[in-house]
Amino acid sequence: MSLRTNIAAIAALLLAFGTAAAHPSGAELRCGWFDNPTPGNASLYDRDGEWTIAIQGGYQAKGDWPPEYPPGQWRATNAGGHGYGCACFKVRVDAEEKNILEIFSSKARPLSACRKDPALKGIERRHL
Question: N or C, fewer C-beta in 10 Å, the chain?
């Protein structure tokens, strides 16, 4: 192997170990429409339907949300800048109840990523 190949292999291993250490087992990546219509209320709509993140005065997932959105990638639909955007969340979920239990990380995506995803077709129009 060349030096360049060895360096790339070592970097890949370090990245894999760092990712595994940062996210406990049971974590999964879920991408779709993040909806935060009012204070304390939030959901993620992905290929499997709606996942509850928070209900004002009630259920709240552990972890930080929302992700930081670059200019033009957040659609405000209500006072105080509440609205929706496209995002990926590294989470632990309760699949039976459709709740996000814990958010390990989140990252904004371009609106076009959700609009082009066939699994998310029509969600923006129907729910957001």
Answer: N
